[in-house]
Amino acid sequence: MSDEGTAAVQRTRNRWGEGERLRGEILDGAGRVLSELGGGDGLTIRGVARVVGIAPASIYQHFADREALVRGLIAHEFDRLRDLMRAADEAVDAGDAVGRLRARLHAYCAFAVDNPGHYRLMLGNGAERPAPDRPPAGPLVDVIDTLRVAFERCAEAGHALRVPADRAAVMVFVGAHGRVALLHSNPGEQHARAVTPFVDEFVDLLFV
Amino acid sequence: MSDEGTAAVQRTRNRWGEGERLRGEILDGAGRVLSELGGGDGLTIRGVARVVGIAPASIYQHFADREALVRGLIAHEFDRLRDLMRAADEAVDAGDAVGRLRARLHAYCAFAVDNPGHYRLMLGNGAERPAPDRPPAGPLVDVIDTLRVAFERCAEAGHALRVPADRAAVMVFVGAHGRVALLHSNPGEQHARAVTPFVDEFVDLLFV
DNA sequence: ACAGTTACCAAACAATTGTTCGGATACTTG
DNA sequence: CAAGTATCCGAACAATTGTTTGGTAACTGT
């Protein structure tokens, strides 16, 4: 049932070198490849090995196969995105609920603009989970959920919403995601700066 | 400078059979492959040839290379999308400007929901045009422009907007696109029906 | 220092890919 | 019917891919 590392790895951490050191380097190298080569395809085992400076076979001791590698990379990058959003939130005065919401969104957009390859890989997949789980789970809904609590904090602070908080969360997420996707498929660099005021305008639209 | 067909083909239309008959069948077959195999990758010359029932070599008389084939397919599908949106618009009573706008958006969402593979291929590309043209051109901005005129018609009919028409157009497009992308990366079938009321709610948000 | 375990690598295998070349086929023109 | 031409296909080439196998070097505890 385990996804990637195979039991052998997690049994031997901190024995050789720092244990899972190479695993992290592989993920970093994969991220670097993804940054240079735009699309999620083209991310090849051999290419990652070449960037990291190791043999292709060495990757198979940390990831079962190519699919496990991209799964690991996606999870890694989602963790990074969540940390960035949380850090941006906590860097704002705790009393300014709307400012914290804006900071979260700005961090999201900055990540998407700075890492187009990662972003497309994280949000460009489809038809992966055959199980029709009733609650649509996944890292995306986690992000949306953090936005929901941010909206709820705004509402508790006295800023009235035009729609329920959960609805506002998916609306603003959808707006940010759509705006970023529009930027990515139309690479006019002069518009990269325009995405932040756009989502700000979006947020304004959701308060009375 | 010509993109795909090579001069030989367009010089001989309507000579053999119906001229560019096979070209259309190839595009249709490519679309079928794209519908079954989700992603834009995996759309292979040999796969298309197998589906159409021809030899892989036969494709190269209608398309210079694989890239030209996907370019042709993208253009083909954008034409189809534009026709669908226009037909939906014209099927509504000409006096109901908001209804016509809604019809355009519904047609857009229906296309995106029914053809996930096409949709991802059409909007999932990036870093293709190295020329930093000042006006960000492309089929997407054409779609947005039709939405802009639809919004302007609404404004002329007396429905006041909360933002300028061009701004409203990109906002509602971004909303629809983001909602569809969210659906695609979270394939919960019970939500496919939820995208239309979502964009309706979006439209409501843009009028006073 | 010695045995045991682990991380890593060089090499090769099988499969698939885009693409090209020469010939066979079917249609049009005279 | 003959000549000409455009269309399509079988076969092959070179390149790249994911993956496996057996071996080598490094580090562990005793």
From TrEMBL, chains A, B:
Q: Where is the HTH tetR-type domain?
A: 20-81
**Which Pfam family is an annotated match for this chain, by its short name?**
TetR_C_33
Organism's domain of life? Bacteria
Keywords, alphabetical: DNA-binding, Transcription, Transcription regulation
Record's keyword annotation contains Acyltransferase: no
Q: Per its UniProt record, what InterPro entries does this chain match?
A: Homeodomain-like_sf, HTH-type_TetR-like_transc_reg, HTH_TetR, MT1864/Rv1816-like_C, Tet_transcr_reg_TetR-rel_C_sf
One MF annotation (Gene Ontology) recorded for this entry: DNA-binding transcription factor activity
Q: Does the keyword section mention Transcription regulation?
A: yes
Quote the DNA-binding region ranges, renumbered to this chain: 44-63
Instruction: Please identify the protein, giving its name as recorded.
Output: Transcriptional regulator, TetR family
